[in-house]
From TrEMBL:
GO molecular function ontology, one term from the record: DNA binding
Taxonomic superkingdom: Bacteria
Residue span, HTH cro/C1-type domain: 9-51
Matching SUPFAM superfamilies: lambda repressor-like DNA-binding domains
UniProt-recorded name of the protein: Helix-turn-helix transcriptional regulator
Record PROSITE patterns: HTH_CROC1
A Pfam family of this chain: HTH_3
InterPro entries: Cro/C1-type_HTH, Lambda_DNA-bd_dom_sf
């Protein structure tokens, strides 16, 4: 409620309960009655099911991210769209190969390594990108082993 600049008294007035009731809800001493959930959810512009099924909020957040991503993607030039697709494929492949977990365990790895091409307009194939990533992973492993 603090995030929405709404005091206990304000919420109490909006859902027709006393301030002490709202204070007890916030402290966890009591829960709102089922019939109050839609009213409370409407005040916070939320789906009332989030109070019962926390995964509903995650679904809405994912949908919002997807809408934002699609909107931005559609505004990009074809070349930039291809770059985004290539990057997403690499991320997906790393995730599926658990490379991300291995990197997280090493902690000291840099977040980003830059590789520059002679022709910035060149579009790399999936295989070429995979080869570059493999080379960089090998280099990182080599550097990490030198520190031991």
């Amino acid at each position: 409620m603090d995030q929405h600049d709404l005091s206990d008294t304000d919420l109490a007035n909006k859902v027709n309960v006393n301030r002490t009731t709202v204070t007890r809800w916030r402290s966890g001493a009591r829960s709102p009655k089922l019939e109050k959930l839609p009213e409370i959810a409407a005040i916070f512009h939320e789906d009332p099911r989030i109070f019962i099924e926390p995964s509903v909020k995650a679904i809405h957040t994912t949908e919002n991210r997807s809408d934002t991503l699609n909107s931005l993607f559609n505004k990009l030039s074809n070349l930039r769209q291809q770059r985004v697709l290539n990057f997403a494929k690499v991320q997906f492949n790393e995730q599926n190969n658990n490379v991300e977990q291995i990197r997280e365990q090493k902690n000291s790895l840099p977040d980003t390594l830059a590789a520059h091409a002679d022709d910035p307009k060149r579009i790399y194939s999936d295989k070429e990108l995979a080869d570059i990533n493999n080379y960089l992973d090998t280099w990182i492993d080599h550097e990490e082993n030198k520190k031991k």
